[in-house]
Amino acid sequence: MAGPSDKKRVKGARITRAFRIGSEAWKLDDKERPAGIPDDHTTGWRVYVENIEGGPDMGLWLNKVQFSLHETYPNAKRMISAPPFEVRETGWGGFTVEIRLYFQPYVGEKHAVRSHYLYLEPYGAPEQAERMKAANLVKAEILDFVEFNEPTEALYAALTDEERQWEGGSSSAGPGGGKGRGKAAGVVMAGSAGAKTVELPERGSESMPYSRQMEESLLRLLRGAEADVERQVEELARRKEALEGRRRDLASTGDLEVGKKKK
């Protein structure tokens, strides 16, 4: 029977966690071809849900992940119940993978759905596509977030407990928690070398391009795009009003017969 803290909510609280959804694909040569795969499968690939570099334990909120592959694959719905949350396969063409994130029972929320397009061929600008081809690695990855508004007391306790956030803590102990090495290891400040933080780093690196700097750039881009859309909507409204005024003028002078069909 669930304890009270699995049901009660922390009013006004909001906790966000970042993670990565992506895929990698590579051309198979004769040495790398797994035995028994179809002759037309020319590419190996993996699709995954992973933590950000230095991020807190995903296992505190994520229980399992279901990847829905193309229907031509046997057992097309693959449920992964433990890290690494990934599926490895071979194929010849790309498709959209539906991804379902199932939360820990004490989260008290239904699963979340995401989608990811599996690229098997180089894509993007010519320079980018050429780099992928040269490296024999086609990578497509996005930074995503899950947000818990007014989380259960059990989830709030888990996601704010330093002992359970980092490797070495008792992250798999469930809502009751447990003592571990997390506090002894300590949590260093965000932005320093090897930082462990629930926040994105101030600046990105080659291995971890996602950062608050990138987030701010994307937000500025989105705000600019939103302003452009608003201006276009206002311009369309002005044009519509002008056309309506012109129509009324024509109707009042008899130059426009409204509602009458031509014989």
UniProtKB/TrEMBL annotation:
Keyword tags: Nucleus, Transcription, Transcription regulation
Keyword Nucleus annotated: yes
InterPro entries found in the cross-reference section: YEAST_sf (IPR038704), YEATS (IPR005033), YEATS_dom (IPR055129)
Biased composition (Basic and acidic residues): 239-250
Annotated GO CC locations: chromatin; nucleus
Gene Ontology biological process terms in this record: regulation of DNA-templated transcription
Domain YEATS span(s) in chain numbering: 9-162
Major location category of this protein: nucleus
Protein localization: Nucleus
Chain segments carrying region Disordered: 164-184, 239-263
PANTHER family: PROTEIN AF-9 HOMOLOG
Entry protein name: Protein AF-9 homolog
UniProt organism field: Aplosporella prunicola CBS 121167
